[in-house]
């Protein structure tokens, strides 16, 4: 099963952008996260719509942060990049009249929903400035 690295990549880049402060091109960001510029632009579409970043075209243009790291939460980034699923666990639906399958599915659903709530609540409490390693805080 493939893992979705968009949240990790977006957080990584946003924190670097805060430290760089100058506009950063999609090509430079792509090198930073070992991908291509098209992937960066696709990743940044939602962040731009959410008002987290801004882009300028032309010479000297690029991506810049619109908000301070202390005002951006993990949950805002999670939603802005279009993430919807935290888990890839699913349930079987081949035997819709089977009470055992129904009980199993209900328990899986309830447990995942409880975990999803815990994670999204925690994501809403964490701002990006809290992710900056100590070594970078004074630079």
TrEMBL record:
Pfam families: Rrf2 (PF02082). Keywords: 2Fe-2S, Iron, Iron-sulfur, Metal-binding, Repressor, Transcription, Transcription regulation. GO terms for molecular function: 2 iron, 2 sulfur cluster binding; DNA-binding transcription factor activity. GO terms for cellular component: cytosol. InterPro entries: Tscrpt_reg_Rrf2 (IPR000944), WH-like_DNA-bd_sf (IPR036388), WH_DNA-bd_sf (IPR036390). It comes from the Bacteria. PANTHER family: HTH-TYPE TRANSCRIPTIONAL REGULATOR YWGB-RELATED (PTHR33221:SF15), WINGED HELIX-TURN-HELIX TRANSCRIPTIONAL REGULATOR, RRF2 FAMILY (PTHR33221). This is Rrf2 family transcriptional regulator. It comes from Erwinia typographi.
